[in-house]
Fold this sequence. Notes:
Largest sheet: 6 strands, mixed
Shape: elongated
Strand content: 15-25%
Structural class: alpha+beta
Strand order of the largest sheet: 3-2-1-4-6-5
Number of strands: 22
Amino acid sequence: MMLPVKKFTDFIEQNNLFERDCTLLAAVSGGMDSVVMVHLLKSSGYNFSIAHCNFQLRGDEASADQEFCKQLAVQNNAPFHTINFDTRQYANDNKISIQMAARELRYQWFEQIRQQNNYTTIALAHHQNDAIETILLNLVRGTGIAGLHGILPKNGSLVRPLLFLGRDEIYNIIKAEGIKYVEDSSNSSVKYARNKLRHEVIPKLKELNPALEHTFENNLKHFRDMEILLEVRLDELKKELLIINGDEIHLPLADVKKLNPQRLLLFKLLQEYGFNETAIDDLISSLNKHSGKVFEAAGHILILDRDKIILTKRNITRHESASIAASDHTINYGRYKLTLLHDDTPLIIKDNPLAVSVDAEKLVYPLSMRSWQRGDSFCPLGMKTHKKLSDFFIGLKIPLHEKGEIPLLINGNGEIIWIGGYRPDDRYKVTNNTKKVIIFELYKVK
């Protein structure tokens, strides 16, 4: 098989990988794939440099590969970049596998070299079999649609111009052209998952379908088109469904129930906020049940409200309770400042929900301010019976995530004096028998 120069340049043009006059950095290991890529770049007239990583994992063999790549650069009149990595130390320091360490090190270095030397593109020698292996690995480990498109021909500054070739085709080119290359002995080991697929699984699949690479090439095109279609639909849904309301995002419940396929679209809509598929399953199973249920992710929460789903950032700020002495005049609590005014006049505050007057003789110091806790109850002004704060908040339709921000004024005997901004307790109201009053007033400071 001769060098497929026309197919190579056609693939580059069809996938808009890079322009004829661009400056390329070719990542070369010295193996069959990358050496064939170098020959194709040279034969096609592209301007390229060569970059080689020595991971120092195979002793003299790795050093020989490094020297081979240096001579390959000389033969092709290409600038040469190389680096030696302490891969084992990096893996140990970052508590990752050797393979992952090598991957991180090389991609970081390629990008560094690209920027320092103003290369427009980094060319990688992945081929069709690499794409097949990636898809199979993703399927085994669990994946969404994005995991099915395999290795993309272009991803930012990374391009893969050999994805039109299979491994057997590359081998045939090597034989026909008499091209020299080096063999990485670790490629024959089946202790790595990718090598196990390469040497044990894919040969069995090829027995079922000898044209496996061609079949997967067509499958990849379909998967990529499906992914694009999904992204277009998601962009439409974000505009239709996600309603910005201050610091919250609201999703109308009626529209969520109409989504089809519901699970996939809802998961993709909420995935960027940290919600996994299990959380979405729980949410869907609760759509027709009572409101008020909360679903949590690392940085966000979802609240199932009566007619909508509320998405908001998780409130990770836990306000410490603030102690209030009889001599205090000002107290800071969370995003509020509380002022205390002592008055001998039995004044009743009206039309200001952020202020309340209470009977001073009924107070037991020190008082405190805190957020609500499960089991809290009080006697709402005008009532003689206790009411749970949770029921009181539900009655006012206060979302669960806002309840923790509401300051409670607590007497020294543990009773609630005032739900700041909402309702005082009937037991502490000013009456005709009140001789001394304290006026509490809240100010928002944040």
